[in-house]
């Protein structure tokens, strides 16, 4: 998977920078075109000349180098990259990337690229375990960055702990896995729904729920990054519209059903991550209802069950947000809706509810195969769900 691929190798300023030469060598031997970007502090640990001899390519260390062969360097490298790997990724570099700072060639390239980014952290164990660093890593993971966990061993300080740069072979395998994922949904048409529908009571009020839409948006972005043609059908959500995705905004469950029916006519898979309101008012007031009575009675009727009612030859994936009896309720929904896979989460668990960047889910397929995942970033959950989707499509 690496042969003839352009790998941008970013090296930041930590003692493990010397190991980047071995990584660059192994990538070059595997047939990759390795373009090296070094931060200024990285050049204090290993010289650009070493990397130039290993890769046979000019090493970029300065955004304003007139001798560089890259025109508007960070943009050209960002567009040329099949993958960007930063090894070592220091706490400082991770923090700057998490904040979106772009003041050197490496950070500008990462901000400008659409290629997958792989981080291989290396630092003192206390720095790695610091909540700020863990939060920065989690934030980058939620944006789709892949992390290669550091090893445990003797650190530069002399103590033994977790923080050593992962071995070159481990990083190479991570790059191969990311590049393989990038193409496993190529040519597939995936429809994703997101957000919480709004069922109007009057021109001002509506019935809805606490869904932020994050899970659906990340599923759409991850499917896009893996080569799929993606249609995202979204109820209102305070999230930026993903680039490279056909976006269809809706408000109500009925509108979503209509959009899903149209979009799935030629789809390979439907992933219903939206939180569709269960009930809607029988009548919607034309004008704002006045608070003239101490009580208000609304007559409600069930909304359409989109997953159960929209059928076809495409793969169908549903989500189940539960507060009790997680597995039994999920299995019941799987059977009732006659779908291929259900992704269930307990919204009462820490880090697995609404308005958070993490989730802890259990996936159950039609055959009864159950897979419980640990607490992960929602982007990683999206990747794991798509792993199953891609696997099921092959069968």
Write the layout of secondary structure elements.
Layout: E1 6-11, H1 20-29, E2 33-38, H2 48-55, H3 73-80, E3 83-89, H4 91-99, H5 105-112, E4 117-121, H6 125-129, H7 131-142, E5 146-147, E6 151-154, E7 160-164, H8 168-183, E8 189-194, E9 199-200, E10 206-207, H9 214-225, E11 229-234, E12 246-249, H10 253-263, E13 269-272, E14 279-281, E15 300-302, H11 306-309, E16 315-322, H12 326-337, E17 341-346, E18 358-359, E19 361-365, E20 370-372, E21 376-377, H13 378-394
Parallel strand pairs: 1-2, 1-3, 3-4, 4-5, 8-11, 8-13, 11-12, 13-16, 16-17
Antiparallel strand pairs: 6-7, 9-10, 14-15, 17-19, 18-21, 19-20
Helix pairs in contact: 1-2, 1-8, 3-5, 4-7, 9-13
Within the largest sheet, what's the order of strands?
Answer: 12-11-8-13-16-17-19-20
Number of helices: 13
What is the third-level CATH name, the topology of the largest domain? Rossmann fold
* SS class: alpha/beta
Strand content: 15-25%
| N- to C-terminal distance | 23 Å
Report on the architecture of this protein:
Helix 1 links the parallel strand 1 and strand 2. The protein folds into 2 domains: 178 residues, Flavin prenyltransferase-like (Rossmann fold), CATH 3.40.50.1950; 206 residues, CoaB-like (Rossmann fold, 3-Layer(aba) Sandwich), CATH 3.40.50. The longest helix has 17 residues. Helices cover 33% and strands 23% of the residues. The protein has an 8-stranded mixed β-sheet with strand order 12-11-8-13-16-17-19-20, with helices on both faces. The chain is an alpha/beta fold. The chain contains 13 helices and 21 strands. Helix 3 crosses helix 5.
């Amino acid at each position: 998977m690496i042969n003839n691929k352009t790998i941008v190798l970013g090296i930041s300023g930590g003692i493990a920078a010397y190991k980047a030469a071995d990584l660059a060598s192994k990538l070059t031997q595997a047939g990759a075109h390795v373009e090296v970007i070094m931060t200024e502090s990285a050049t204090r640990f290993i010289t650009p000349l070493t990397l130039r001899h290993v890769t046979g390519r000019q090493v970029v260390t300065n955004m304003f180098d007139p001798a560089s062969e890259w025109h508007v360097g960070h943009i050209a490298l960002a567009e040329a990259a099949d993958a960007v790997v930063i090894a070592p990724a220091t706490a400082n570099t991770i923090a700057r990337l998490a904040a979106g700072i772009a003041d050197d060639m490496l950070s500008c390239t990462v901000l400008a690229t659409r290629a997958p980014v792989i981080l291989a952290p290396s630092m003192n164990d206390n720095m790695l375990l610091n909540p700020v660093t863990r939060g920065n890593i989690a934030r980058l993971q939620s944006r789709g960055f892949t992390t290669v966990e550091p090893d445990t061993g003797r650190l530069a300080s002399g103590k033994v702990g977790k923080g050593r740069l992962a071995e070159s072979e481990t990083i190479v395998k991570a790059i191969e896995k990311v590049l393989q994922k990038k193409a496993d949904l190529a040519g597939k048409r995936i429809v994703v729904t997101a957000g919480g529908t709004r069922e109007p009571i009057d021109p001002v009020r509506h019935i809805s729920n606490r869904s932020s839409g994050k899970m659906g948006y990340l599923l759409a972005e991850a499917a896009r990054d893996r080569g799929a043609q993606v249609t995202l059908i979204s109820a209102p959500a305070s999230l930026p519209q993903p680039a490279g995705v056909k976006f269809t905004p809706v408000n109500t469950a009925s509108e979503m059903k209509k959009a899903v029916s149209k979009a799935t006519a030629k789809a390979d898979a439907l992933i219903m991550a939206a939180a569709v309101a269960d009930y809607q008012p029988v009548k919607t007031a034309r004008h704002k209802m006045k608070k003239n009575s101490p009580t208000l009675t609304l007559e409600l009727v069930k909304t359409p069950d989109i997953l159960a009612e929209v059928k076809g030859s495409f793969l169908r994936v549903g989500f189940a947000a539960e507060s009790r009896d997680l597995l039994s309720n999920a299995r019941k929904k799987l059977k009732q809706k006659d779908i291929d896979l259900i992704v269930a989460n307990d919204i009462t668990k820490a880090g697995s509810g609404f308005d958070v960047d993490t989730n802890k889910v259990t996936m159950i397929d039609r055959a009864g195969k159950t897979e419980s995942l640990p607490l992960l970033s929602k982007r990683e959950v999206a990747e794991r769900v798509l792993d199953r989707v891609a696997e099921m499509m092959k069968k």
